[in-house]
Amino acid sequence: MVKKILTIAGSDSLSGGGLQTDLATFTTMGMAGFAVISSIVLIKDNKVRIDPVPIDIFQAQLDSVEQVERFSAIKVGLLQSPEQIEVVANFLKDFIGPVVIDPVLSFKEGKTELNHDVLKAYREKLLPLATVVTPNLKEGMLLLNDEKREAPKSRNGVLVMASDLSHLLRCSVYLKAGKGIQEGQYTDVLIDESNHGVVLHYDALDDAFNHGSGCVLAASMACFLADNMDLKEASRAAADFTRHAIVHSYSLKRHAEDGNAFPNWRVQTWN
Ligand SMILES: Nc1ncnc2c1ncn2[C@@H]1O[C@H](COP(=O)(O)OP(=O)(O)O)[C@@H](O)[C@H]1O
Ligand SMILES: Cc1ncc(COP(=O)(O)O)c(C=O)c1O
């Protein structure tokens, strides 16, 4: 039977992340994708504009997908207010199955304002309901909320940070530590459900063409978990899937400097 998988995410009409990227990932993984829209994101001239969907319409979408029997996994992306976070927490309370939450608190594409009530709601209401949370280093530091703490610069430092996050949030953590940890490499760290740490290093690929790579990672991880892999296997498989999406990135304009990760890299392209 075809597996059904839900994303609760923002819409990015440039397909550089958000539900467009999530649905494309689900399709490539051979699963049927469903989407609840939290916000409309507009990116132009290095500015990010986010218009949240009114809360009653957001809730109505969640009520509507309750008709689906039943999702094999749920991925959660951009949420813009404590109210949205609370509504999602309520929705997830009775869900039995893997939940991957990507706490989108910062954008590569431009600055956005941070609402501290959103951070508190994430920490207290939503993230403890996740199977795994996938912050980048900046998002992880924000969630830890410790002004005296410095961002880690070593392999050990990232392991400690991921472990502290996992204790604070009471869930597994896949921390995207980025390129500052080991020369020429990207480092990701997983703290799994038995508090066991795994460090993953990957050769750094061209940075210019990877809008949406965080979404591809979390969405593919949700699919691998839906396929009954354990979290360690699913993490490795998702990291590998995402590297392929980055290698196959495409630009939006013929001579553009940047572009999107390509989640459909497994599918035959028409040339
Ligand atoms: N230039 C790159 N080379 C290799 N891996 C990368 C590169 N950029 C991102 N990744 C990987 O892609 C995944 C998503 O990371 P990232 O794009 O940093 O997330 P986010 O968009 O949430 O900040 C991670 O596994 C990360 O290690
Ligand atoms: C709706 C939405 N969610 C999430 C993201 C984050 O994307 P990334 O995977 O590059 O971190 C973006 C980026 O544009 C977005 O528009």
From TrEMBL:
<dbReference type="InterPro" id="IPR004399">
    <property type="entry name" value="HMP/HMP-P_kinase_dom"/>
</dbReference>
<dbReference type="InterPro" id="IPR013749">
    <property type="entry name" value="PM/HMP-P_kinase-1"/>
</dbReference>
<feature type="domain" description="Pyridoxamine kinase/Phosphomethylpyrimidine kinase">
    <location>
        <begin position="12"/>
        <end position="255"/>
    </location>
</feature>
<keyword id="KW-0547">Nucleotide-binding</keyword>
<keyword id="KW-0460">Magnesium</keyword>
<keyword id="KW-0067">ATP-binding</keyword>
<dbReference type="GO" id="GO:0016301">
    <property type="term" value="F:kinase activity"/>
</dbReference>
<protein>
    <recommendedName>
        <fullName>pyridoxal kinase</fullName>
        <ecNumber>2.7.1.35</ecNumber>
    </recommendedName>
</protein>
<dbReference type="Pfam" id="PF08543">
    <property type="entry name" value="Phos_pyr_kin"/>
</dbReference>
<comment type="similarity">
    <text>Belongs to the ThiD family.</text>
</comment>
<keyword id="KW-0418">Kinase</keyword>
<dbReference type="InterPro" id="IPR029056">
    <property type="entry name" value="Ribokinase-like"/>
</dbReference>
<keyword id="KW-0479">Metal-binding</keyword>
<keyword id="KW-0808">Transferase</keyword>
